[in-house]
Amino acid sequence: MLRDEVEKLRQDNKIRVDSLPDVLAEYQGSSTKELELDAILGEYGLKPANLLVSLIIDQNGNFQQAVIINIDPVSLRADKNIYEQALNQVFRQERFTAAYNEDGSKPGLSNLYMKIKVDIIK
């Protein structure tokens, strides 16, 4: 998500952020991922969903954890932990650029906000 989109979510009280680094962490992978159905959907029993997530990235650009902020449809809220487990598996080996400030300092941890669509491809 772009900085402006994150700022809008903050202003709408959809996320809590005291301050953002000057340059947000960035995902270096593909904007689309096709995953083996048996490996992810079968293992976790995922259904189609739209997610607003925070990927926690450390100062070296390493993925630490996925946290779901919102899941739609709301009927899937009870399965939030299952989706987080799947996201942790998906992003564990991915590459990121760490967030930083104009003065060169890097926050110990930063949030990379993403909108993710889980869909079944036949």
Summary, kept brief:
Helix content is 23%, strand content 28%.
What's the arrangement of secondary structure elements?
Layout: H1 3-11, E1 26-27, H2 38-44, E2 49-58, E3 63-72, H3 80-91, E4 96-97, E5 109-118
Antiparallel strand pairs: 1-4, 2-3, 2-5
Query: How many strands, which pairing sense, and closed or not: the largest β-sheet?
Result: 3 strands, antiparallel
Unreliable stretches covering 5 or more consecutive residues: none
Order of the strands making up the biggest sheet: 3-2-5
Number of structural domains: 1
Following the backbone from N to C, one meets helices and strands in this order, namely HEHEEHEE
The helix count comes to: 3
Structural class: alpha+beta
Structure commentary:
The chain has 3 helices and 5 strands, in the order αβαββαββ. With 122 residues, the protein is α+β, with helices and mostly antiparallel strands. It has one domain. β2 and β3 form a beta hairpin. The longest helix has 12 residues, at 80-91.
Keywords:
3 helices, 23% helix, 122 residues, two-stranded antiparallel ribbon, 28% strand, alpha+beta
